[in-house]
Design a protein that fits this description.
Layout: H1 4-35, H2 39-73, H3 79-110, H4 113-137
Helix pairs in contact: 1-4, 2-3, 3-4
């Protein structure tokens, strides 16, 4: 049984990366269509967009780790573990919000404010869709007695 754990973990990690890759391509296509960038805006925008996506991905790695930890402890969840996971989730949300605030200011330096706001709105809508899917898939915590 212990020998299969690393294989399972590897396949889960592979699956996560596959889903991220597909989402990345679909998201970029949606953003490209919705933003209607001028030729002068396009180069700087996509350069900063790629930087932003790398930064978001690093923060999202923390979320993935929390979800994996939650799954590993789901059947034996204690109040202490639930508290630890929720604090981790709130820290993740705070870090993501801080990152978005920082990049919003960066996008405003290379785009008109309305377009910077539009980008963040598109990004938030896509994130909301991902969050909705996760909410459907991840069961609500049950504390073991």
């Amino acid at each position: 049984m212990l020998l299969t754990a690393p294989i399972f973990a590897q396949s889960v990690d592979d699956y996560i990366e596959l889903v991220r890759g597909v989402l990345k391509l679909e998201k970029k296509a949606v953003v490209a269509e919705a933003m209607m960038l001028t030729s002068a805006e396009s180069g700087p925008f996509w350069e900063l967009y790629n930087e932003y996506e790398l930064a978001v991905n690093k923060v999202q790695n923390k979320r993935v780790a929390l979800i994996k930890d939650y799954a590993q402890n789901f059947g034996t969840m204690t109040d202490a573990k639930a508290d630890e996971l929720m604090k981790g989730h709130l820290a993740f949300q705070g870090e993501l919000l801080k990152l978005k605030k920082s990049y919003y200011n960066k996008f405003k330096k290379i785009l008109p404010t309305g377009k910077a706001a539009k980008f963040l709105q598109i990004d938030n809508k896509i994130e909301a869709l991902v969050n909705a899917e996760l909410a459907l898939e991840i069961p609500v915590v049950e504390i073991s007695k």
